[in-house]
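Sample entry (211 residues):
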Amino acid sequence: MAPKNTQASQDFVDVSSVRDRFLILKQGGIRAVLLASAINLSLKSADEQQATILQYQNFLNSLDFSIQMVVQSRKLDMRAYLLSLEERSQVQKEELLQIQTREYIEFIRNFMEQVNVMDKKFYVVIPYDGESLAVSKGGGGIKGIFGGKKTKSEQDTSFERKRAQIEQRIAIVQSGLGRIGVRTEQLDTEGLVELLYSTYNPGDIRVVSEV
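Predicted structure, serialized as tokens:
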């Protein structure tokens, strides 16, 4: 029998819901997540490296709000790719191509057993908390302190107001990183759900390569 004080995993997650490409927190704040490309500084000259670092420093100094950089590493899962190769080898009519395909499959399997090939993704989390208390339209009382809840209309108005503010921050971050050469794309609702699941269930999902 499970102990009475056992808590559900959701109790330890700050996210309440996902709506219109944004994470809604239990405290009322919202978060946007950008998928960012990487820059290989080792391929740049010393002057280019210094210029990139200075541009990045200027970008950070220009922000009047905090952001979070997240790097997620996953072991690359080649099973789907190997399965597609096996299917191709079975329908391949040329015997030489069949042999070459099977040898290539075996090479990949041996390589993956000897080397941990990691897939890295880079994310930028942009926050906006805004007002933490909701003021009642009638009588000027403050809701939320004594158990009052916002109506659906008030919730929608609050969300739209916060979204307008965070979209300005998104534009600032994308513009600043773009000047450095970092491409960014905001995760949609499905992408956010997948990111949350893979983050809190690291043993269930691996990155699967595509053909």
